[in-house]
Design a protein that fits this description.
Helices cover 45% and strands 17% of the residues. By secondary structure, the chain is of the alpha/beta class. The chain is built from 11 helices and 8 strands.
Length: 253
């Protein structure tokens, strides 16, 4: 049976982080499943358009990728999202696959975070990737959502606090104000900011580490904290990519 793996990401226009994160997940999948064709799709139409116009890089939508696989004679596809949580993007992806798979036998892998075991595992990965430093709090910044799945961040924060870390989101309930208040309640006066995002793109470079007063960094510095930042996306961490491979294996099984 002719089989493919379709790695689906929101996408990014930052080619540097794309290569180190999304492409790294794809390379790992190809190495793990050499008999399968590994393809790419981005869900964001804006990202796809900007890549095409600015860099001449063409990336399929989910529907386009599925149609292309069918035209090329593939019979089975495992669709693996690089999403963190089962929010609105995951709902839309499932709908797109159900509508666009046609005669393809399609399987969909789960996002990185699905249950409490996943939350604990990610907290452990972050602690290992960023070892604790005396007097410094690791503060991870995620995206957040208006979807009910935003509650995943609350549960992840509980796991992270057990390991001495903090968490906030750009668009979720645990906002920057929550993070500043939590930091002020702690004895440490130094913060190390890291993205809880697959790629280190706009949100990482601007919302988290930007020089402006409204960035997470700027708001903490205004409160007297010494702030350092790491810009690497989660996709650069081998242990995170390994968990996506497990998702693919589970979907295939």
């Amino acid at each position: 049976m002719k089989e493919a793996i379709l790695i689906v990401s929101f996408g990014t226009t930052h080619l540097d982080t794309l290569e180190k994160t999304i492409a790294a997940v794809e390379r790992d999948a190809q190495a793990a499943y050499p008999a399968c064709a590994v393809r790419r799709a981005f869900t964001s139409g804006i990202v796809r358009r900007r890549l095409r116009e600015k860099f001449g890089v063409a990336v399929d939508s989910v529907e386009e990728a599925l149609a292309r696989l069918a035209q090329e004679g593939f019979e089975r596809v495992t669709v693996q999202p690089t999403l963190l949580i089962p929010g609105e993007e995951f709902d839309l992806l499932r709908a797109a696959v159900l509508k666009g798979a046609g005669a393809l036998e399609a399987r969909i892998g789960l996002p990185l975070l699905w249950d409490d075991r996943d939350l604990a595992a990610l907290a452990d990965i972050l602690r290992e990737a960023y070892p604790a430093q005396e007097g410094t709090v690791l503060l991870a910044m995620g995206h957040g959502t208006g979807h009910i799945a935003d509650g995943m961040y609350d549960r992840l924060l509980a796991q992270m606090r057990q390991r001495g870390m903090e968490l906030c989101t750009v668009e979720g309930a645990i906002d920057f104000g929550c993070a500043v208040a939590a930091m002020k309640a702690r004895p440490e006066r130094r913060a190390h900011l890291v993205p809880l995002l697959l790629v280190g793109g706009d949100h990482t470079k601007n919302d988290m580490a930007g020089d402006g007063p409204d960035s997470l960094r700027g708001r903490l510095e205004a409160e007297g904290f010494a702030v350092t930042c790491s810009l690497q996306g989660l996709g650069e961490i081998a242990a995170v990519r390994a968990r996506y491979l497990r998702r693919i294996a589970d979907a295939m099984a």
